[in-house]
Structures are given as C-alpha cells and as structure tokens.
Amino acid sequence: MSANPYRKATYLLSAHKLDQLPKDDGREVAFVGRSNVGKSSVINALTGRRALARTSKLPGRTQQLNYFLINEEVMLVDLPGYGYAKVPKQLKAQWSELINGYFNIRQSLTGLVLIVDIRRDITEQDLSIINWCETVETPVHLLVNKADKLAFGARKEALDRWKRQADKSGSVQLFSATRKTGISELVAVLDEWLFV
Ligand code: GDP
C-alpha cells in the first residue's frame, strides 16, 4: 500500500466569507455532504486524527469552510454540511450563497468528495452538487459512508443502488469511518486528483 500523504494534514484556517479563503493558486479537494453523514469522521479517519475536523454541537450551524494543509500546494477543505431540518431558512440561504460562490470562483478546486449515508436516499442537494460538478467538469467521488451499519448482502445491494442513483458521478465507493475501511481506496482517488 502506498503512503498516505493526508496524515500530514495540519489545520490552516476557517473561512466564513469568500474573501477569507486562502490563496487560489494550488490544488484542493472539497468534502461535502448533508449534516450527520459523518463528514468530520471521514476526514479524521483519512488523516489518522481523532479530532482534526471537529464535530459540531449544532448541526448545520457552522457556516464555514475549514482548510487543512497537506503541503504548500495541496489542501483539503471541509465544506459546511447541509440539509439539517431544524436550520432556519435564512441560514439555508446563507449556505447556498457561500457554497455557490465557492464553486463559482475557486480555481484550485480539483475534485469533490460527496459523502452520503448508506442507509439513506440521495437528496435534491446531493443531486444538484453532482450536476454542478458535471457542468463545470470537476470530478466527483461518491463516498458511501456508514457501510458498517449494514450486513454484507444489504451493503452490496445498497452500493448498487447508490451507483444507479448517482450514475452521473465519476466513481462510487463504500466507506466506514468507524471501522476505518475504504481509506486506501479514497487515498488513491485523492492522489490521482492532487498528486499526478
Ligand atoms: P458530520 O456532521 O457529517 O460531520 O458527521 P459526524 O462526523 O459528526 O458524525 C455524525 C455521527 O455519525 C456521529 O455520531 C458519528 O460517530 C457517526 N458516524 C460517522 N461515521 C460513521 C460510520 O462510518 N459508521 C457509523 N456507524 N457511524 C458513523
């Protein structure tokens, strides 16, 4: 197995507004998904840290982009989660504005990891992210997390279902942040986007 360069990740900054983003002259991969899919847990599993990406006490309320540095040219970015039912309308609008703005201006964005929960169905917002990636020709990797929640047969069925639901997206894989399975597959995708 090749080395995992993402274990070198260090926290860089949190941007609440687009003018707070770091310099736009490298390569970065963004992690996105609805609240509670395990986005922070995935980033922590990938980087081998217990708490690099913090889990929020108020789901959906942290409207910020958290940047992690791998080297001077390569970054990972944790986008705010979406779809939490109790979030007020105004915050949802703020999310859309921030994320649309980010997608539209960010030259460094090389690929997107869209995280979903194996037991759930794809949402409108998941689909609009996949569509957006298609439009701007940015590759998206669908990470089907919480695979440990299903037994072998059901897991395989769910993976096939996700592949059908997200057939426009580039690639699909199973992952379990809890069991730490699927990390080398994810590392291979990120390496191809960031280090080739
Ligand atoms: P975020 O809101 O998307 O950042 O999600 P968190 O990382 O805070 O995780 C939300 C909840 O899902 C927590 O209780 C995690 O322990 C749990 N979780 C995350 N990943 C997994 C996984 O792969 N398997 C299981 N069983 N639970 C997970």
Your description of this structure?
Helix 4 (152-165) links the parallel strand 6 (140-145) and strand 7. The protein has a 7-stranded mixed beta sheet with strand order 1-3-4-2-5-6-7, sandwiched between helices. The protein is globular, with a radius of gyration of 16 Å. The chain has 5 helices and 7 strands; from the N terminus they run ββαββαβαβαβα. Helix content is 33%, strand content 21%. The chain has helices at residues 39-47, 89-105, 124-135, 152-165, 183-194, and strands spanning 10-15, 27-33, 65-69, 74-78, 109-117, 140-145, 171-174. It has one domain (5-194): Rossmann fold (3-Layer(aba) Sandwich), CATH 3.40.50.300. It has 196 residues and is of the alpha/beta class. It binds guanosine-5'-diphosphate.
Please bin the fraction of helical residues: 25-40%
Biggest β-sheet: count, sense, barrel? 7 strands, mixed
What does the radius of gyration come to?
A: 16 Å
Distance between the termini: 17 Å
Uncertain segments of ≥5 residues (pLDDT<50)?
none
Note the beta-strand portion.
15-25%
What features would you highlight for this structure?
alpha/beta; binds guanosine-5'-diphosphate; Rossmann fold; 196 residues; globular
Explain the layout of strands and helices:
Layout: E1 10-15, E2 27-33, H1 39-47, E3 65-69, E4 74-78, H2 89-105, E5 109-117, H3 124-135, E6 140-145, H4 152-165, E7 171-174, H5 183-194
Parallel strand pairs: 2-4, 2-5, 5-6, 6-7
Antiparallel strand pairs: 1-3, 3-4
Describe the structure concisely for a colleague.
It contains five helices and seven strands; from the N terminus they run E-E-H-E-E-H-E-H-E-H-E-H.
